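for the record, two folds in this file. i put them one after another cuz i was lazy. first one right below, seq on top, structure tokens after. the second one comes after a little note so u can tell where it starts
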Amino acid sequence: MTAVMSRAEAGALSARNLDYLDEHLAKYISSGKLAGTIVAIYRKGALAHWSVQGQRDRERGKPMQDDTIFRIYSMTKPIVSVALMQLYERGLVQLDDPAERYIPAWKNLRVYRAGVYPSFQTVPCERPMTVRDLLSHQSGLTYGHDLQTNVDAAYRQVGIGRDACPSLEEMARRLAELPLEFSPGTHWHYSHSTDVVGYLVQIISGQPLDTYLHEQIIDPLGMVDTGFRVRPEQADRFATNYGPASSGSGIEVADDPTTSVYLQQPTYLSGGGGLVSTTGDYLRFCRMLLGGGQLEGARIIGPKTLQVMTRNHVTGNRSMAAASSSGIYQTSHHGQGFGLGFAVALDTSEGQISASPGEFNWSGAASTHFWVDPTEDMTVVFMTQYRPGSNASRYNLNRELRAIIYGALD
């Protein structure tokens, strides 16, 4: 194992516990569960910890480095949600606007009752889907990989998402032909909702999603390595993505960085999971959030708007687990609500995690994670590249890191 370690001044964090953190991640690497990791902790206006371990490309012997590029998958969602709320601040969209105002083909959306594709029995929605429903994953949409319902199966048959759809416009057209899993606002269910949010950004701004994000968020924040593809000059820094080994032990290559689809410019700009980034870039985004919407003179979002985004918007002030339509949720969804692009800590005893009420966060499919804790004036970014194939192969990294890092607070 090749390891490169660097640490900022610990400041208001226990050096002993930071050693625990590094040792804990080193065990994941030495046991073959992960190839490499980076963790960054920013607290009280200073970088408190920056640790780089292992390899970004184990098969080629390339070490993990400060500027390694990662697939951040669903950590794209908060960035795109901020983008739509920028347009809200310009008076161009309201949270209670019906989605059909921007996507006319959605005017007659209906809810699944019975049947299989293409012969569904449906009923009318109790009310129209709104922009807030999309931002908070209460839209009635789903993902095609839940493998639970007939609607979910139809997503796979019709082809919804980056790997099956040529554009966001075509995604919206195909979704118009399918029923919703539930009437908007009645349940919480993780879905393609944020892909639709990205489509709304395109429609309302009149710009392609990537152009808008660069002009309004990525470039102003100096996130120089963030985008919807890995540019040729970045390719050598791109990490391998791993998954559970078919042998049942360890990991194996799931996406080779030399042949990855991320080396090409996509035509489907996934607001739900399409970006690549670095730890340093994403830390700048998180520092902006921690700073009430601004960083180093760049105002990205207003503090009052950010307050709206980081409150629980799940109907009835329920947790994600309590409001789930399917029973598919992680343990951490207990005690956590969902705002407009972020999970929000409500009850840390119910969630059985270390956190502060009001802390907000989200994760990516390759085991990346971040959280922003205004109470402790702290943000944490964790990067690796391991995409579990199922809950059985998922690691408990999020909760373990929280226990160690919150235990380090003086």
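(here's the note) second protein begins now
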Amino acid sequence: MAKKLIKSFTLEELRAAVRDWGYKPYLANQIFLWLWQKGAEDFSAMTDIAQNKRRFLKDNFAIPVLRLESRVEGKDKTQKFLFSLPDGHKIESVFIPEEDRKTVCLSSQVGCPLGCKLCYTARIGFKRNLKFYEISEQVLMIKKIVGKVTNIVFMGMGEPLLNLDEVIKAVKILSSNFGFKIGQRKITISTVGIIDKIYELADSPENVKLAVSLNSPRDEIRSFLIPINEKYPIAELMKSLHYYVKQKKKRVTFEYVLIKGLNDSEADARLLAKTLKGIPSKINLIPFNPFPGCDFKAPTKREIERFAGLLYQIFPYIITVRKSRGTDILAGCGQLAGDKLP
């Protein structure tokens, strides 16, 4: 019979299990710290745990979750990792180094069910949700290779809010003093706008940041790019974000991928500012990142500057033009698909 994965326990579940095994509750804290903070790959490495307890753990549980299949580094030092899961599925994660931060971009699903036309991951289709320990393991394995990790963004493969329960469990490990000790203010969850889950996140005790992939202020264009907009139109999305801001007392980041001739006109800029009126926010303008089989193009540098310049004049909050990282290794925004992960 296959051994159960020890990492499939949350800290609370592990504490309950330890009591059932007849041991003192502090053993759960020791195990959790060894697994998630120290990255132990074998129970024998847990040297402050008594040998009989280590033997019990070894006889009944297994540690490994992910296997590193490949790692590539781009010209800008961005690194893309391909991991295989125990069931044979594959996912990608990205490490983005900057002077003041070391960010890991996480996947939350194998593939994605939303079919967004500006995202390469959509070509895979949807396979399954990731478990919280499969999400957290991405950080652990990358951390062992690159060293310090300061920030987390759920902007990899999948729609995080369609797997919110597991994502939140992962967030708790990432921010736990027995885990990675990354403050929740340095963790960002990105969504295309799953409205009921935005309300749920707004009412939760979690203190993560929220980013919304908007990409157009026009329902007809947004529905073309992001088909789920038919179910969650822009007006209803804005209502949920007003509620989120009211509950959390923090701004929302809007990701706006600029596509030549589709959402980059002066009228688009003016309507975007009008649509976001009253929502404390930041706009990240992202020139479209090409991927195999896609006909979209990014505007020219001059066209991007004109769009951003107009927004600077009429939008009261922060606007940035984000330089895409890792595009030469298909690690940029919307480019993850691992050759469609056979």
